[in-house]
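INPUT
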Amino acid sequence: MTPATLFDKIWDSHVVRSIEGGPDVLYIDRHFIHEVTSPQAFDGLRTRGITVFRPGKTTATADHNIPTKEQELPIKDELSLKQVETLNHNCSEFGIEYFGINHPKNGIVHVVGPELGYTLPGTTIVCGDSHTSTHGAFGAIAFGIGTSEVEMVLASQCVLQPKPKKLKITVNGSLQKGVTAKDIILYIISKISAGGATGYFVEYCGTAIEALSMEGRMTICNMSIEMGARGGLIAPDLTTYEYLNRIHSVESRPDFKSLLLRWRSLKSDEGCVFDRELVFDASKIRPMITFGTNPGMGMAIDDTIPGAESQGEGKASFLKSIDYMGFKPGEKILGHPIDYVFLGSCTNGRIEDLRAFSQFVKGRKKAPGVTALIVPGSKRVEQQAIREGLDKVLKDAGFELRQPGCSSCLAMNEDKIPAGKYAVSTSNRNFEGRQGPGSRTLLASPLTAAASAITGKITDPADLLNN
Amino acid sequence: MLKVKFNILESTCVPLPLENTDTDQIIPARFLSATSREGFGENLFRDWRYDKTGNKNEEFVLNNPKFRGEILVAGKNFGCGSSREHAVWAIADYGFRAVVSSFFADIFRNNSLNNGLLPVVVPEEFLKRLLAMIREFPDTKVRIDLEKQDLILLPTGESLKFEINPYKKECLLKGLDDIDYLLNIKEMITAYEFRNSLRQ
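OUTPUT
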């Protein structure tokens, strides 16, 4: 048997048929849907006069377009309300499990999936959302798809996909104080660039990756798409099994023990070949911040923005980006005043992120000029935060715990950052206008967000940790 | 279900040399609340076409009457970012039938192929020359022949071959739908499910 990568093992075992000179027909074990990318897919089914092939394998949640306050009241925005109602109606009609707003299992789709125990090693998972790569943290092949492909999966439980190439990213070493999983992935993207891994599926390994909790691993895999990769995965290990065991003792899946036996083979074999390999030293990574308008434009928080001449062919785009952000080439942005802080999103909206943020701000006060949006990734995260008293810690420090949703990450709802304002954000994209027309996003970790919320300026969390 | 077919396209071009144009620029998130596929063309590059007060931004290429056409010529890594297929619907609804670039983001390329919008990859050096030619001669016409996989610069006759997946090419030429294909192999899918359940 030729040594195979974990990616190959999972992909090859899910191919129903390989089309000559074309894509593979890939069977999908779990399909997640939400209100923004599904309406047209269901309409497509109706037009064809067909139904959902395997309704039990699709799970729906409302997350992108919903408010994060007063969720008990009807949604005010007409279009948002219509989209959410459309999803509700579609799920009813086609017999699909749906966790709507206010449901105890509601939340951001990539936070909810693992919570429900649906995200499992060795499976294929898709969703009409590019951050589906998050689920790769469990050793699954998970990737984002477009609405036409959502329709494909609903109709046949399969998707047509060309098999990507394989990229191995190894991160070894120990993290410095104040440096987190978010900083690792921002660092990697800054070295590879926003399109650097296009055409590849990543496997992350190395001691620094293995040392991460499942939530830290989800943060890493989540942002695989931001370097252009199809997705990213991490081989399951004891950390994975312990997490799943906790979830499953609650959900009590009967065949868990036999699955556990199968999962032990889910790792890349000795001597297997990747198409490309990169190695990084975790001990060199500092708290990161982005300064431009794509996630690859990041640097250590106390570093200087590169000069325009270093950009070669990309000089014009670079200057446009820096200008949009109100920065200058060669500028140091540590200490720059900020206006907003957003803790949340499928990247950093889980209980460990809320704990880290709360622990940091405990006994301190939010800077008066800063508006903060603290958004839990799901109802479960929200409830757990309340049980742990984090909402009180946050309140004492001048912060308010909101209700779950994608919120300011893409600002489809009213949680928009106004034009010209700087937002330190634990989300995943800093494109022009991403958080609201004219808004200026600075991507960072929850610790950096907490430190900056306290001082009202871009702040290295390590500085405040020493006090 | 037949979709739009693509065979030969001969048209002038609209140049967008910027690199890393992401799908948030192509169609901002606030326009994703629609529940149908229509009408997205109006909001294509909305925040680049119009300023904050809703006035046309004369500097932006789509507002420049010199440049018209069904072919968009774009800088590398076009369509990066969110998987929103709405970006492709907006480009197609506006009137484009093909996008030419040296590099496309994966999901965007897949979405384009699934909607009859042809993504054509050309070498970086050729792209630079093409953009320069269009800027100097806005009525430059390009011919794209999908069957032959040829892109021809009509003023000079220079032609190059472009890559496209043979299956996708067939679908585009015949107006075939991926879902029809999948529905036709339902038995194979059920057989796979059965084999897999035996393995557990």
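end of record. The longest helix of chain B spans residues 186-199.
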